[in-house]
């Protein structure tokens, strides 16, 4: 089932209807289910059952899903301790700027190595003290957590106490038993309601609320002037803005990857004191065209992705046949690439393939599974930094990963991988018609790969110059002087 534009619009209408109900919204307002921020197969899978049922509800499956959620909660209760101790923060530390980032790799943290904001912090004077607060997306051992928290870093805790879980469950049951909500909603909104109100969505929303409470505790003590966060359309961003508005703090949202879905952008219309920094003309034009945003607060600031890439290794042959595969940080996307790699191996084209996983998936267990799946193909699972891989290949295959911009920076030829029956996801959508594409189920696979074999790389190659021109449309070089202006910083 492919989601059409009309179906997507109807879905957004249903979700907005739910969020407008105060009783429901108080339970699920921050859940990813009701914050539709992106058109992606994994995102659509959450809603697929609703439309396949054609508006009909199956009470049995609703009951089973919630029993499973309750069982998972009960199983984890023995490991949950009541956290009465507040986060320890020194009131004497003078911090003007707080960065709230995502912890996706144990080594990618702090001002110098942060996965998202390190290039921003480098524009700051050396004596400027900043604090990094992390939303944790990976599992870390206790000793690692303690080491990280000992520096100018705070990793937020997302575990509930037994009392908190009991309170949330009671609130959920009260809303579930409120028949007035169902009477007021249309028949086609009801299935969306019953999916959205499932206990795992309620817990997700409340977990985000718990993180926001910790953020508010920190800013109440430190009283920063500016808070910086990513701009992706998540429910956390909406809650964060409310905290900043309450405490009279300026908030800077940084667009560092794909823009949020247009339906989610309208929630940013209420963000009067927020600045949205974008990386290129493409994003600037898209947001200016969007009638929900105050365009005075949308600022082109650029990115380190727009800077010149390092010189490629002179030892690389112009006829090098390596292909780098760049899946997004989703298991389903990696699986699609594994299928393609095994399909390519059948052609015996003397092409060496390199697969690199997103940091969030690059764990020992997952890497071991992927190695088994590609063991019959001439494919290397890379553990190198991406800049190393990009300096050793001439071509890369991508779908929705924004790592393709890094590839453009190094003059690597991008090839879009279209999966049959799935929506187009290319971050380079403006140039899609001008770039080669492959479909593992179509006849063009072998011809494209033969074309890859004939591709020659040269620093004077007009094709490489064109690729870098594409990059500039999405990512201009970071404007450090402009950046310092918004932080009231003088270069020292």
* Distance between the ends: 57 Å
Give the uncertain stretches in residue-range form.
78-86, 455-460
Number of H- or I-type helical stretches: 22
Helix percent band: 40-55%
* SS class: alpha/beta
Number of strands: 13
Shape: globular
The main pleated sheet reads as: 7 strands, parallel
Please give a handful of descriptors for the protein shown.
seven-stranded parallel β-sheet; 12% strand; 492 residues; 22 helices
Structural summary, described in words:
The chain is of the alpha/beta class and 492 residues long. It has helices spanning 5-19, 22-28, 41-44, 48-52, 59-76, 110-113, 118-121, 142-149, 162-176, 179-184, 190-196, 199-222, 235-246, 262-265, 281-289, 331-345, 364-373, 386-390, 403-409, 444-454, 462-474, 480-486, and strands at 97-103, 130-136, 153-155, 226-230, 250-254, 274-278, 298-300, 323-326, 353-356, 379-382, 395-398, 413-417, 437-438. Helix 9 crosses helix 12. The radius of gyration is 24 Å and the shape is globular. 32% of the residues are buried. Mean pLDDT is 79; it is low at 78-86 and 455-460.
């Amino acid at each position: 089932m492919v989601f059409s534009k009309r179906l997507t619009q109807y879905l957004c209408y249903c979700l907005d209807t739910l969020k407008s109900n105060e009783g429901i919204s108080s339970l699920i307002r921050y859940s990813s289910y009701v914050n539709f921020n992106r058109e992606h197969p994994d995102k659509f899978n959450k809603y697929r059952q609703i439309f396949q049922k054609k508006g009909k509800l199956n009470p049995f499956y609703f009951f089973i899903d919630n029993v499973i959620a309750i069982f998972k909660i009960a199983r984890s209760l023995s490991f949950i301790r009541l956290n009465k101790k507040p986060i320890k923060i020194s009131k004497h530390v003078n911090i003007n700027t707080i960065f709230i980032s995502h912890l996706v790799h144990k080594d990618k943290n702090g001002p110098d190595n942060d996965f998202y904001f390190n290039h921003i912090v480098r524009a700051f004077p050396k004596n400027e003290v900043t604090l990094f607060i992390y939303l944790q997306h990976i599992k870390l051992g206790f000793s690692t957590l303690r080491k990280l928290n000992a520096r100018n870093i705070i990793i937020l805790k997302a575990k509930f106490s037994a009392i908190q879980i009991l309170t949330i469950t009671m609130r959920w049951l009260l809303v579930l038993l409120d028949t007035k909500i169902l009477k007021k909603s249309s028949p086609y909104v009801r299935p969306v309601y019953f999916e959205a109100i499932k206990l795992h969505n309620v817990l997700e929303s409340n977990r985000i609320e718990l993180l926001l409470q910790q953020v508010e505790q920190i800013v109440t003590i430190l009283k920063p002037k500016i808070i910086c966060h990513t701009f992706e359309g998540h429910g956390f961003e909406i809650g964060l803005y409310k905290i900043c508005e309450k405490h009279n703090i300026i908030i800077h949202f940084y667009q560092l990857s794909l823009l949020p879905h247009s339906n989610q952008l309208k929630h940013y219309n209420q963000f009067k004191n927020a600045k949205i920094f974008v990386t290129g003309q493409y994003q600037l034009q898209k947001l200016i065209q969007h009638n929900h945003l105050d365009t005075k607060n949308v600022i082109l600031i650029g990115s380190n992705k727009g800077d010149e890439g390092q010189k490629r290794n002179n030892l690389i042959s112009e006829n090098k046949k390596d292909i780098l595969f760049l899946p997004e940080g989703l298991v389903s996307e990696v699986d699609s690439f594994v299928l393609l790699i095994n399909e390519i191996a059948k052609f015996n084209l003397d092409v060496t393939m390199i697969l690199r996983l997103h940091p969030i998936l690059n764990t020992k267990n997952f890497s071991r599974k992927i190695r088994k799946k590609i063991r019959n193909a001439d494919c290397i699972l890379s553990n190198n930094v991406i800049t190393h891989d990009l300096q050793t290949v001439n071509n890369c295959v991508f779908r929705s990963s924004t790592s393709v911009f890094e590839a453009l920076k190094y003059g690597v030829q991008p090839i879009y991988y279209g999966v049959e029956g799935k929506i187009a996801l290319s971050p380079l959508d403006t140039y899609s018609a001008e770039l080669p594409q492959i479909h593992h189920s179509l006849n063009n696979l072998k011809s494209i790969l033969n074309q890859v074999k004939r591709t020659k790389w040269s620093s004077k190659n007009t094709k490489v110059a064109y690729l870098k021109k594409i990059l500039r449309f999405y990512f201009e070089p970071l404007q450090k002087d402009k950046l310092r202006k918004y932080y009231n910083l003088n270069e020292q």
